[in-house]
Amino acid sequence: MKKKNFVTLVMGTIGGLLFALGMCMGLIPEWNAFRQGVVISIAGAVILLAMVPIRRKMDGKPMIVLNGKTIRATLLGILGVIVLGVGMCMVMVWNMMIPGIIVGIVGIVLLLCLIPVIGGLK
Q1: Measured between alpha carbons, how far is 45 from 48 in angstroms, rounded to an integer?
Q2: Do 5 and 58 fall into the same domain?
Q3: pTM value?
């Protein structure tokens, strides 16, 4: 295993675990640890976000490339995640099962549209 793959594996695992644990702490009322959960979730998100420039640096690529393609992909990804999250809230919080499923599917389709936008299909 190459060093860059190992570093990505470790950072992804630690960041994902911290983020998931923090979300559980914040969203399970019986744990009574909302503030601590927010802090741990932010720490996990920072590790996951730091993984991208570190990996690019280890590949010998520039850390962040901003052009029209990356900006479009970022905006589409953010929109897709927000729509998917609203659909999940509609189902789990607001008891709107069918409309929530439809909105969630629209969010998933928006996220799937990222594949051709970033050049994944050739």
Answers
A1: 5
A2: yes
A3: 0.66
- Looking at the predicted structure, is the pLDDT value of residue 102 above 70? yes
Mark out the alpha helices in the chain (DSSP H runs).
Answer: 3-27, 34-58, 68-92, 97-112, 114-117
Q: What are phi and psi of 121, to 5 degrees?
A: -105, 120
- Compute the Cα dihedral for 41, 18, 47, 119 and give only its sign: negative
Q: Which residue has the higher pLDDT, 65 or 25?
A: 25
Same domain assignment for residues 60 and 2 = yes
What stretches of 4-102 adopt beta strand conformation (E)? none
DSSP character at residue 93: T
Q: Which residue in this structure is represented by tokens 């729509």? A: 83
Tens-place pLDDT, residues 40-68: 999 999 999 999 899 999 988 887 777 87
